[in-house]
Amino acid sequence: MPRRTAVTADVRRRNASLVFAELMAQSTCSRKDLREATGLVSGTVTTIVAELVERGLAQETGERVSTGGRPQRLLEAVPGRVLAALVIIDPEMIEVRTVDVDGRVLWHDALPHDGRRGDADSLVHAVATAVERARREALKRAGAWYLGAAIGVPGLVVNGEDLLITLEMPIRDLPLLARVRDSLPEPQQLMLLNTGRTAALAEWASIPADQRPHLMAYVGIMEHGVSGGLVLDGDLVGGEHGLAGEAGHIVVESDGILCDCGARGCLSTVLSLTNLCQAAGVPAPAGPESCTALLTGLLKDGDPAALAALERGARGLAAAVGTLSNLTDVGTVVVGGQMGGLWPWLEPAVTELIDSRHRVNPVFNPVVRLSGLGADGVATGLAHALRQKLVTDPLRVPALNP
After folding, report:
1. Tens of pLDDT along 10-61?
2. How many Cα atoms occupy the beta-carbon half-sphere of 179 within 13 Å?
3. DSSP letters along 289-352, please?
4. Cα angle 174-192-158, degrees, rounded to a multiple of 5
5. For residue 369, what are the β-bridge partners?
6. Eight-class DSSP state of 282
7. Given 171, 234, 255, 398, which is the most exposed site by the fewest CB atoms within 10 A?
8. Which residues of 280-289 are buried (b: 16+ CB within 10 A; e: fewer)?
9. Torsion angles phi and psi, residue 89, rounded to 5
10. Given this model, what pLDDT does residue 241 score?
């Protein structure tokens, strides 16, 4: 008897997940549309829709005239009912946002920390402070239910809980989520995700369904490094240790400068925004926007040092694309991140490589495309992860008027 109850509850959650996912995917739809899309019977869809409306996750929004029958009542999701926190860890700052399930930003802030100096306590305190502030902002919204927080970090995450290593900060073996939970005044649901791989998933999801490749690689040019990820039919490729697709540490100059990872000539050493500024002979300004604006101005003015730095970075990017293609036979490489307007100076070297390879073998070459998300890739990916958490069990949201 207890087993039958568990199975019934599992089926109810699974069916609710199917209906809610379809409702989220469409701007408006009828109960008939939901039946056809999910394959569920009329009574099941009607019951689930009633539960979603009761919880404030869906609402009726008019009628559609139906030929040969009575009008169909239309439904839409209510993204503002569920709010969550996005926390993006940078080596020196933490960006935090309160968002709805569509990723719309309702509040944002930034907090400094000393993780760059190896101070794990400072990092934990800043993350906990950011999460709690975002939660309080969410609860100020009338009728909102707080889901939890997704935390993105530029480092190797193990068990979805711990930060094993991050080259941008001298911090190792940090049980980040456990430490943050202990610092919060109230329990919260927390997720810890690698920023590069999260952005890779967001980029894959942003490609129209009929154009998505079987295998996609992502290269994210960031202020302090180059991130990356491999996505196979919508799932991340982790590899033996969860590091597959780490594009920033593909060696592109065998006699290059020493990288923080211990190798020489990694892509990050020639293509991170900080290293590009340094190679151009100018102090790296605070923030990626200032960095790219400064570099773009110098490039447009024909500054020799800036042009040489971008040419070197572009050759490195082309070499990394070739390596990714040779090792994985990747179908698409998406280049994104915080690079701003630098793509016109990077693209020619990549195009030259693809064209040269195409003359020898017109099949075995990836499509290289510019990101549609740009610097918002990480935040979009974190929001997507939180949205998926809600979709798996929308009935966890309490009724509006219990």
Report:
1. 888 999 999 999 998 888 888 988 999 999 999 999 999 999 999 999 999 8
2. 16
3. HHHHHHHHHHHHTT-HHHHHHHHHHHHHHHHHHHHHHHHH--SEEEEEES-TT-HHHHHHHHHH
4. 55
5. 334
6. S
7. 255
8. bebebbeebe
9. -90, 125
10. 73
